[in-house]
Amino acid sequence: MIEAIAPVGQAAEQLLGVAPIQTQVTDRLSFPEILSKGIEATNSKLVEADRLVAQFAIDDSVPLHQVTYALEQARMSFELMIQVRNRALEATQQLMNMQI
């Protein structure tokens, strides 16, 4: 008999000893609030990456892999933010072009 594949949350708990992420949303956020939180998160990642780069340039107390990881996180977060912006602009343009 073949054993079924465990859900991702259970697999992470078993392999890493990490509790699964709660999927229930208790606070309902509006779309603008979600966007502003995403922008704030992206900004904090960019600031942290800049801080690590500056600290790495001054002394070698920060490992290179940590700087590289922070830069990549900031880049990917920024690219996601740009894609969300582009999709929102496309949706707005489509709404503007609709005939009533």
Give a brief rundown of this model.
The chain has 100 residues and is mostly helical. It has helices at 8-16, 31-58, 64-97.
Q: Could you describe the 3D structure shown?
A:
This protein is mostly helical and 100 residues long. It has a domain at 29-97. Helices cover 71% and strands 0% of the residues. The chain has three helices and no strands. The protein has helices at 8-16, 31-58, 64-97. α2 packs antiparallel against α3 (64-97). The chain is extended and about 65 Å long. It starts with 7 loop residues before the first helix and ends with a helix. 4% of the residues are buried.
Sequence stretches where pLDDT stays below 50 over 5 or more residues: none
Q: From N to C, what is the helix and strand string?
A: HHH
Shape: extended
Oligomer: single chain
Q: List how many beta strands DSSP finds.
A: 0
- Helix proportion range: over 70%
Biggest β-sheet strands, sense, barrel: none
The structural class is: mainly alpha
**Mean pLDDT score, rounded?**
83
